[in-house]
Fold this protein.
Amino acid sequence: MFSASKLTDDQKSALRLWAAEGASIADLQKRLKDEFEIGITYMDARFLVLDLGIELIEPVKDEKKQDPLLDNPVPPGTVSVTVDNISLPGALISGKVVFSDGETGIWMLDQSGRPGLDPDTPGYEMKKEDIAEFQKQLSELVRRHGY
């Protein structure tokens, strides 16, 4: 196990600077190897960060970018229904829906073919037009997937 006491003050300063610039533990491990020829394991690098009290800057995750529905915004006044690549547990088929007002939710059909809808906002009530469009698109998607 590598100890922080084996580092010089300059090396410790360099680690703090790299971390302040946004380096991850893997980046710190690599830079120690490249710039100071100190080869340590990832776990040793984690302990080193803890021992030196270095705070890593976590990159801000933009969760909206991870959702394909939000990457391709739905035009106002329309409903968009998609199917998940991997269905929810207990579901025969499941997916996501974006309603005309921008509200989102998760839908599913269970093993008995019963539909379920879980809007992201508790108590959300769909417009009548959205209900009809949602049912139409859902029916088409389910048929297209062989159910």
